[in-house]
Amino acid sequence: RGCRGQAGLSSAVGFRFVPRRYKGEGILPASPQKVWECIKPVAGGLRTKWDQNVKDFEVIEAISDTVSICRTTTPSACMRIISPREFVDVVVMKQYEDGTMQSAATNVEHQLCPPQPNFVRGFNYPCGCFCIPVPG
């Protein structure tokens, strides 16, 4: 939905989660810009539309144009056996000269975002996502 690319353009997407080092990779038939629009962590972005594990994403504080404090909420799961979660992270986004786009994040506490009722406060280890142009 809105994430389809143009013929002939491909992008590699990678996810890495530390310390357990979970990693996922894929090559998508879309331009890096189209793929990035679907996965970048921004308020009002497409991620909440396709990712059933992301209910809402909000910016608590914009520190600069590339660094922000963000709150992500997730819905309950397994017939409400797992409570809704909230995560507060410092997020850095960067675009490199070769067209690679990156977001990196880690857990942070922030005075403007104390734990909210009806949510379990989750903890994200350092993690990130890369969207890398693939030749051809």
From TrEMBL:
<dbReference type="InterPro" id="IPR002913">
    <property type="entry name" value="START_lipid-bd_dom"/>
</dbReference>
<dbReference type="GO" id="GO:0120020">
    <property type="term" value="F:cholesterol transfer activity"/>
</dbReference>
<dbReference type="GO" id="GO:0070508">
    <property type="term" value="P:cholesterol import"/>
</dbReference>
<keyword id="KW-0813">Transport</keyword>
<keyword id="KW-0446">Lipid-binding</keyword>
<dbReference type="InterPro" id="IPR043556">
    <property type="entry name" value="StARD5/6"/>
</dbReference>
<keyword id="KW-0445">Lipid transport</keyword>
<dbReference type="Pfam" id="PF01852">
    <property type="entry name" value="START"/>
</dbReference>
<dbReference type="GO" id="GO:0015485">
    <property type="term" value="F:cholesterol binding"/>
</dbReference>
<protein>
    <submittedName>
        <fullName>STAR5 protein</fullName>
    </submittedName>
</protein>
<feature type="domain" description="START">
    <location>
        <begin position="22"/>
        <end position="136"/>
    </location>
</feature>
<dbReference type="InterPro" id="IPR023393">
    <property type="entry name" value="START-like_dom_sf"/>
</dbReference>
<comment type="function">
    <text>May be involved in the intracellular transport of sterols or other lipids. May bind cholesterol or other sterols.</text>
</comment>
